[in-house]
User: What shape does this take?
Amino acid sequence: MTGSRLSSMSSKYWADSYFPGNRLGHRTSNVAESFNSYILEARSLPVHAMMERIRLQLMLLRTERLKDKLRKDGKRITETAAKVLAKSVTLAREYIVIPANRDE
Assistant: This one.
C-alpha cells in the first residue's frame, strides 16, 4: 500500500535526492552515512577483523562518553554500580564468619 502510494507521487516530495532545495536550510547526513564514515578504516579489513575493529571502536566511544559523564557529575562510579555495591555490602554484613577448623 505505501509503496504504491509513494510510486504514484512525484519523487521530489518524498525522496531527499530529488528534492530541489535544502531541508531546514542545510544538508544533513543520515545515521548510516555518519556510521559509515566512522568505520571507514575498518571497512577495508577482512570481515572478522572488521567486526572486531567496529566493536572496539564502539566500546571505546561508549567508555569515553561514560567517563566524561561521570567527571561532569563528579562521580567515580555509575548509579547502577553504586546500587549493586550497596546491595553487596548489605548482604555481606549478614554473613557469619567461622573458622573452617574449630580446633584452631
